[in-house]
FAD-containing oxidoreductase (Gillisia lutea), 457 residues
Amino acid sequence: MTFDFDAIIIGTGQAGTPLAASMAKNGLKVGIIEKSQVGGTCVNNGCTPTKAYVANARRAYIAKNSSDMGVKINGDVTIDLKQIKQRKEDIISESRSSIKEMLESNENITLINGKATFIDGNSIAVNNTTYTAEKIYINVGGRPRIPEGFNGVDYLTNETILQLEEIPEHLIVVGGGYIGLEFGQMFRRFGSKITILDRGSKLLKHEDDDMAQEIANIFKKEQIHIRLNSKCISAKKSGKGIEVNVDCAEGSPSITGSHLLLATGRIPNTSDLGLDKIGVDTDERGYIKVNNSLQTTLDNIWALGDCNGQGGFTHTSYNDFQIVNSHLFEEKKRFLSDRILCYAAFIDPPIARVGLNEEDIRRKGIKAKLAKKPMSEIARAKEKGETQGLLKIFVEEETNKFLGASFLGTGADEYVHTIIDMMYAGASYTALRDAVHIHPTVSELIPTMLEKLESIK
Ligand SMILES: Cc1cc2nc3c(=O)[nH]c(=O)nc-3n(C[C@H](O)[C@H](O)[C@H](O)COP(=O)(O)OP(=O)(O)OC[C@H]3O[C@@H](n4cnc5c(N)ncnc54)[C@H](O)[C@@H]3O)c2cc1C
Ligand SMILES: NC(=O)c1ccc[n+]([C@@H]2O[C@H](COP(=O)([O-])OP(=O)(O)OC[C@H]3O[C@@H](n4cnc5c(N)ncnc54)[C@H](O)[C@@H]3O)[C@@H](O)[C@H]2O)c1
């Protein structure tokens, strides 16, 4: 059988685009299908725009909160959301244009605009045209999960909130995960009143209690109202605003604001691909099942990025590309099982994680040692006037190797890589304990902390 392409990639996300470029460089003919803007979630509605807004919000916060350090502004600090939005759009458009240009200018790549659906294991329909390929790579990403009671309600998501040109008066945020916290703090700093509701008993459900509590303290200091153990079940229009109904043991069963952001998790874009009819299995939440090299239950089809449920981040999607690419073109093969979990939430100060935390270690019954330090004891944090947060590092008793770290504090998203790299190197903690770091940095305290490890009881 002759195919139109050697490979078809569905989606121009964080794995699909570099995979197309690599295949083309290696002489393969590639068709890449995109139903929306090239670049996927990260570029258009995720990391890029939110981190641009986080930077605007931090400038606003510093401008409004520096008089205690002797920096006084005689006059108002005002927020121009239209200008902030334009700056974000300029950054996105630069990224998007360079991706589009790369895909359109490469003679081995055909960019096909439209929504892909499988006809069979080698054929895909897009706008009534059928395209065939020997191998198919699915990189379709995900979208916001909307709880049932909110259908038909005028809510915002991570996509639509980025289109606002006026600051909401009172933004109700449902969900105290990454998206809820990043947007909640940023819009507070832009001037909105913020209420964050979560059905769980803490913010950021995957973090240790002390970390989650410290984040709650930081948010409360910025007058962000937090309601935990509050399951939001429905919402309706109320005058010019919106009323959210809450199932809770304490507090009011309803809350009214001017705007509502749903940040209640994400679901994979897999239900309308036609996977069931071709024999590509998904799990009960719709994530495509993959093996250690990201192959699906069909031998010639692979799934990369958020849709395989193995990551949920840009760096994990890009690593999925690296895994698949290594099996296609490289000598050293990479596998999913080589990956060490790491991520950051870009609140201010950021929280960054690698490997296991204290709750994971206790649950697994691993014998481990802990080094812990509040940011308030760190010289550089004091000098910066940014002493909120906490550092925790975990080492396995038996092997002396790092199990993980949880860092909440100024610059944590950068110096967590000290531990990430040691974990990838498989190094003993003593190698880092005996290193000399630059003064004055937060990093310089990491070796000192490792001199004071204590067993977790
Ligand atoms: C608000 C927000 C902030 C985030 N911030 C961060 C962060 O700071 N750091 C981080 O690491 N991660 C962050 N993420 C997560 C990150 O954006 C994703 O993990 C990342 O984009 C990887 O996605 P992907 O490669 O799986 O696919 P995506 O980037 O989602 O791309 C999938 C593409 O497939 C297309 N598509 C879907 N179905 C079809 C179809 N049937 N036919 C054709 N095309 C189709 C879509 O239009 C889309 O362009 C954030 C996410 C959100 C929502
Ligand atoms: N910094 C980053 O890397 C970053 C930033 C944003 C998003 N992301 C990605 O996007 C994903 C989704 O983020 P998210 O914050 O939407 O999801 P999440 O799963 O992290 O958090 C959702 C929260 O909503 C709560 N919730 C759900 N339904 C509720 C209801 N009816 N009432 C009250 N609370 C409810 C849950 O308890 C949970 O705490 C992340 O897992 C991550 O993969 C990453």
In short: The chain has three domains: 5-143+267-338, 160-264, 342-455.
